[in-house]
Design brief:
Strand order of the largest sheet: 1-3
Strand content: 5-15%
Number of domains: 1
Largest sheet: 2 strands, parallel
Number of helices: 3
Helix content: 25-40%
């Protein structure tokens, strides 16, 4: 369950599985949603390509740092 008002980051790609679902998912979120869509990253790249894995992890880490409380 999403908490109203909490920032949300989704890392995905048009080349990965079900991009249309990722595009509409934030519509039901009551807070700020930032779904960065990466180019030409397949669902396999998200776990198998070290460069894409690092970029994904960095995106999430930046999101967490930017929205840290306290």
């Amino acid at each position: 369950m999403l908490v109203p008002g909490k920032p949300l980051a989704i890392v995905h790609s048009e080349a990965a599985a079900v991009p249309q679902g990722v595009r509409i998912f934030p519509d039901g979120h009551l807070g700020v949603a930032t779904p960065p869509m990466l180019e030409d990253v397949t669902r396999f790249d998200f776990r198998d390509n070290p460069g894409d894995v690092t970029r994904d992890a960095d995106t999430v880490a930046d999101h967490l740092r930017a929205n840290a409380e306290g």
